Amino acid sequence: MRNLFKHCIASIILSSLLFFASSCKKSETNAVPTTPVNSCGTGVSFCVKIGSEQITGTGRYIIITTGAARQRILWEDGTGAAYRNVELDIYASSLVPGTYTFSTSPATGQAALQYYTGGMTFLASAGSVTITSASATSVSGTFSGTVTNGSDTRTVANGNIVNAAP
Questions:
Q1: pTM of the prediction?
Q2: Cα-based torsion angle of the residue sequence 124, 125, 126, 128 in order, rounded to the nearest 10 degrees
Q3: Number of Cβ within a 10 Å radius of residue 105
Q4: Which range has the worst mean pLDDT, 66-75, 93-102, 137-146?
Q5: Contact at 8 Å (CB) between 58 and 85?
Q6: How far is CA 62 from CA 53, 124, 165, in A?
Q7: Which long-range contacts (CB under 8 A, 24 or more apart) does 145-152 make?
Q8: What is the spatial distance between Cα 159 and Cα 92, in angstroms, rounded to a whole number?
């Protein structure tokens, strides 16, 4: 009886040790999210694909107070006949995070997108811009949609604004 008692105690102790040892295993956890990578590339604050053209460069943030109050993100390249630009205007007296729908005749709280290339002006006929952060000195966000010039329609994809500054 005494041996049986010792074996029972030993079994209980051994079972307890195995239980605690197995419960101390490192549990699997999900990876901690990292800060998103600038999808435009290092040192680039503006990028978008319009039709087959990939546009990458510096976007400037301009606050326009004459006429309809609006916030503009502007990308420009070239001179003369080679001049191209993208103007993204958000019609608001101050810019706050949110989604602004493109319109060809924007009102307060809406946006407009103009793409100028090869002497032709394309205007956004659909889509939106989402501002993710905004201050008096920088703006970030994403945009997509379509731009048209007559019967020529082009897709606007993967538009990114990353800390565009004045």
A1: 0.73
A2: 30
A3: 7
A4: 66-75
A5: no
A6: 24, 20, 8
A7: 145/102, 145/113, 147/50, 147/113, 147/114, 147/115, 147/122, 147/123, 148/122, 148/123, 149/120, 149/121, 149/122, 149/123, 152/120, 152/122
A8: 20
